[in-house]
Amino acid sequence: MNMKLKVALVMIMMSLAVSSQAGGLYWSANSGDWASGSSWDVGSKPGAGDQALVLWDHTITVTGNEQAGTVNLGYVANGWLNIAAGGSLNVGTMHVGQTDEGNLEVGTMNVNGTVTAQTLYVAFERNNGRGVLNVNNGGLVTVNEGFYMSTTNTTEVDAFARINLNGNGSIISNWGYAVQLQNAKAHIDLEAGFLKFKGDQRAQIETYINSGWLTAYDGNGTVNAPVFDGVNTIVTAIPEPATMILLSIGGLLLRRKMA
Q1: Of all helices (H) and strands (E), which one includes residue 170?
Q2: Best mean pLDDT range from 5-14, 52-61, 93-102
Q3: 148 has which bridge partners?
Q4: Given a cut of 70, is residue 9 above it in pLDDT?
Q5: Residue 27 and residue 42: Cα distance in Å, rounded?
Q6: Which of 89, 92, 98 is nearest to 129 (CA)?
Q7: Judging by DSSP bridges, how do beta strands 51-54 and 65-73 pair with one another?
Q8: The pTM is what?
Q9: pLDDT tens per residue across span 219-247
Q10: Are 47 and 25 in contact (CB under 8 A)?
Q11: Is 167 left (phi over 0), alpha (psi -120 to 50) or beta?
């Protein structure tokens, strides 16, 4: 380990100690359930006003109904946060991909249950940020205030902010604006679920579609023109024709089997 890295790690540990005293908690086990108090440095799980830090290549799984004031995912090293089906996380500010300048780790959140965040950042305002949010089949993320993704360093080839809405995974934003995508480092891919934004955000969403920042089925499908229902702008997608045929055949075979 070189001297610069040693100094950086010492400074990080000092800052963690201070943040812990101020209400910050960091996960200290390799993996486990969020509710396991012994896996947090202070001996108890985070509460509504606490800062939760997921560091050091650790993985946390949320199976119950949990909460935190702030979650920082993937700052010093890769970090994974899995929200299991039936599990929920209510958080004030959610940072997915907190990599700082000089590091190229990834923060990854996999949502099979539900997440409610006042503000959601995916690698936002991080020079070398790398954040991935996978909202999987049956998963739902609700954002009530700010919704941001992308990185400030547009020249860093390894920097990215990515949201994958797999299956019918969906996102609802009650913010009153479209998600803020700053540059081509930010990308959203949509499948059978939906994106819903409060207000008429059609013009902004169409810009994202035309720029290739919002795609469908890994670029093989089509993002439908956004629809404004008088309250929300709703974005959906359709798969490529070949996939649609396979899905139709699969549905037909299933109905015959059930009959």
Answers
A1: strand 170-173
A2: 52-61
A3: 121, 180
A4: no
A5: 9
A6: 98
A7: parallel
A8: 0.83
A9: 999 999 999 999 999 999 999 874 554 44
A10: no
A11: left
HEC per residue, 27-71:
ECCCEEECCCHHHECCCCCCCCCCEEEECCCEEEEECCEEEEEEE
138's CB contacts (< 8 A; 6+ apart) are: 85, 112, 113, 167, 168, 169
Please say whether the beta carbons of 159 and 186 come within 8 A.
no
Q: Which two tokens mark 188?
A: 């959203």
Q: Give the chain's end-to-end CA distance (angstroms, integer).
A: 64
Q: What are the E-state strand segments in 74-155? A: 79-83, 88-96, 107-111, 114-122, 130-135, 140-143, 147-149
**Residues 37-52: tens digit of each pLDDT:** 999 999 999 999 999 9
Residue with tokens 């013009």: 203
236 Cβ contact list (under 8 Å, min separation 6): 190, 193, 194, 223, 224, 227
- The mean pLDDT of the chain is 83
- Give residues with Cβ within 8 angstroms of 232, minimum separation 6: 196, 197, 198, 199
**For residue 124, is pLDDT > 90?**
no
Q: Is the pLDDT of residue 6 over 70?
A: no
104/86 Cα distance (integer angstroms):
32
C-alpha–C-alpha distance, residues 67 and 116, integer Å: 9
Which tokens go with 189? 């891919």
The answer to which of 14-28, 60-74, 218-232 has the lowest mean pLDDT is 14-28
